[in-house]
Structures are given as structure tokens and as C-alpha cells.
Amino acid sequence: FTSFLSILILTLQLSYAQTASRTDWFEEARFGMFIHWGLYSAAEGIWKGENLRYLNNYAEWIRYRNRISKEEYGELAQRFDWQQIHPEEWVIQAKKAGMKYLIMTSKHHDGVAIWDTKVGNYSLPKLSGSNRDVIKELAEACRKHGMKLGFYYSHWIDWEHPYAWDHNIELTKSVTPQQFNTYWQEKAIPQLRELLTNYGDIAIMWFDMWIPYEQTIFKREQLEQAVQLIRELQPNCLINSRLGLPTDAEFVDFQTLGDNVFANEYIAHPWETPGTIAHSWGYSGYEKEWKSTSQIFESLISNVSLNGGLTLNIGPRANGQIPYESISRLNDIGQWLNKYGEAVYGAKGTPLRARNFDWGYLTSHNNNVYAHVFNWPLDKKLRITGVRSKPKAIYALQEKKLVKLSFEQKGSIIHVDLPHTATDNFVSLVKLEFDKI
Ligand code: JFZ
């Protein structure tokens, strides 16, 4: 019996260790790039002079919003400028921004496969008549530059397939569970198989169903079939919670929060927020909601302070170009991370679990705690509450130099004497060294 027990414990430990190690890199990474690029990119958010503003107004939803026929929508493929499209540039931009992984839309809700699929004819190569497989080129560029690659795949909504789910299904058609299963077995599963077979190592499969599967047409077995396929073909590939299974299900490797939803409490398991720099995910020529660089810093750092990460989206144009507004923000963040990455990569929330100081956020890495100061205190005193241990030393990080600061600790409140001016234009860092936090 004892040996049975020890084998059981060993097995449990092994399986735990396995899941733990599969997500290690993801929890180190903290910052990745999302790319939304498809036929909708060519519409640029407008259709026959109409820029409809009801619903979510996402540019990538234009086919649905403007009730465009499959055929007419397919003609957008003619507007792609193949001479100018170089997926490697996206990878280089992600690196420059300090991002550690990249998630590409392989098939969005419009049902168009971006790669050269053998499942059906509704793919970018077939519709455009070009022999380019952007997914293949992107996979090669990611390998070349040491960038982890993930695929977004819209498994639930597919506006092209007669038997898949349509967001507006009650009004437009009715699909039986049997019909839905035909879509699942004849389109989704074979396409997933292609993506997991033909493009080398895939680090993440990012699904997009934001309500629990019980409220949808999906049967649990169908989702588990996708999980099995992934585990069989790519054992290290991570699966996000928008597959539709609960976050604590053994199949789900990390939780995806709502779009642009940032946590407000510490979350112990791996998680990320998908975020936009603008409003739309796909390219829109009518974008009016560019966020400031500071807002994006805050999205990233507040998430890391609560143990999570940020997958930040770009929506390149149909000629591959990334909007300048995105590039300039990505480069600012990349320059900062190049100097201060130790406070983000591999960093966690602090055991203090405090956040929302009036000056900014805390992260921790090994035995160091980092104060990310967004608002430089006017009295030049940084107050950190809730610290029971005694810091060995406290420094301001300036470029890559450490400038020693004096401080006083009264009970669990530390008062740090700051330099007279902020040490960085965006986020100034103060590093607290401990023997043990
Ligand atoms: C979905 C897509 O519809 C959208 O086009 C984009 O791809 C984005 C990443 O995901 O949009 C969502 C998903 C979830 C919520 C809202 C919009 N949500 O949880 O509120």
C-alpha cells in the first residue's frame, strides 16, 4: 500500500511539474504582440461609404455589421498589395517593442483562412490568387528571430460556414447541434490540424469564445477533441480559457480576461489581458481612440503587479504596414523595457499584494521589489506601505545605473527620499533590495 501511495504521489507531482513547466515561459514573458490582419484590413472600417457605428464598431466585424455577402466580401482580397507585405517586419517590430511572443489571427470570425488551407476554398491565397502563405512566412520569421508564435482561431463564430455559429444566429438562420458538428468535424478540426502540423512549434492556441460552453451550441466533447488534437500534435502548446472551458479545467493553461479588462486583484494562476492600442483590433481608417503611451505602460505594469501579462494588438493595413501611431508607442515601450526589463520579465505581483498606490505599482523579482512610479510625488517622498521586512538598500534606477537613496522605515511604512525629478519620462523605477521579501 505504501509503495502504491508513493507511486501515486510521484505521479501527481510529475503531472503537476509538467503543467507548471509548460507555462513557465509564458509567466516569464509578460508581454506579447497580437496581430489582427485579414480581409477586413482591406475594408479599413468603411463599406460603400458607410461607417456604421452600432454594435461594437470593430473594424474586423465589418462583414457582419454591414451584412456583406460572402462573395462580395471575398473581393477584398484583390486589395492586398503583395509587393509590400513582409511578415518578418512584424516580428522585428515585436522584438523591438520587447515582446516575447506573437499571436496571429489565422482565421477570424469572417471564416477566412489566412494560410494556404486545403480545407475549402475560402482562404486568402485562393481568394487573392497569390501564392503567398503569410502564416508560413511569419512562422519562418519567428523561428529566425527567436519569437514564440501562437495562433488565434475563431472556433465558435464563423460567418462563412453555413453550419457554424453566427453572432446573430436567431435572426438569420438556425443551426442544429448536428449541423454544427458537421462544421466542427469538416472545417474547424481539420484546419486546426493543418495549423498544428505544417508550421513548426506553436506556442499558443488562442481561442475566442467569451462565454462558458454550456451557454453555447458546443458540447464539451467537441472542445476536448480540440484539446486532444493540440496535446497530440504540439504537447508544449498552451491553450487559453476562451476555448470555453473553465479556467480551472486541466486543459486550460492560462486565463484570458475580457478585452482591455485589467485585473484588480492578485491572480495566482497564469493569465493575460488582450489589449488594444486603438479601439478596433483590425485596421480602421477611422480610428479615433488612440491610447497614450502612459496608458499602455499602466496596462502592462498594473497587470504584472497582479501576476499577469499583456498581449497588445496591432492591426496592420492590407499592405502590411503597421500604423505609425502603434509603431511610436511600441518603440517607446521597447526602449523602456530594454533598460528596465528586470522589473517586468519574470516579475510577479508582490507578496504585499498591494496596488493602487497614488504614485503607481509594485512588482517583485527574486528578492527585489520594484516601485513603478507613474506620478512623481511632489514632496519627493515615496511612501510604500505594507512592508514588514527590512530592505538592505534602495536605489533609483537611472538608465542602467543604480543611484542609492536614503530611507526611513517606521513599522510597515517606508519613506524613501527621491531624487528631485523623475528619472524617466514614462515610468521611473525605484528598486528595493531584500535578503528575503
Ligand atoms: C473578440 C472578437 O470579437 C474581436 O474581434 C477580437 O478578436 C477580440 C480579441 O475578441 O471580442 C470580444 C471578446 C470578448 C469580449 C468582448 C469582445 N468580452 O469578454 O467582453
Give a verbal description of the structure.
- This protein is an alpha/beta fold.
- It has two domains: 21-343, Alpha-Beta Barrel (TIM Barrel), CATH 3.20.20; 360-433, Immunoglobulin-like (Sandwich).
- It contains twelve helices and 16 strands.
- The chain has helices spanning 2-29, 39-43, 62-65, 70-74, 87-96, 124-128, 134-145, 169-172, 177-197, 220-233, 293-305, 324-340, and strands at residues 31-35, 101-107, 148-153, 204-207, 238-239, 255-256, 271-276, 309-314, 360-365, 368-373, 381-385, 393-398, 401-405, 407-410, 413-417, 428-433.
- It has an eight-stranded parallel beta sheet, sandwiched between helices. A five-stranded antiparallel beta sheet has the order 9-10-16-12-13. It has a three-stranded antiparallel beta sheet with strand order 11-15-14, with no helix packed on it.
- Helix 10 (220-233) links the parallel strand 4 and strand 5.
- The radius of gyration is 23 Å and the shape is elongated.
- The two termini are 41 Å apart.
- Residues 4-18 have low confidence and may be disordered.
- The chain binds 4-nitrophenyl 6-deoxy-alpha-L-galactopyranoside.
- Residues 58, 60, 208, 210, 258-259, 274, 281 line the site of 4-nitrophenyl 6-deoxy-alpha-L-galactopyranoside.
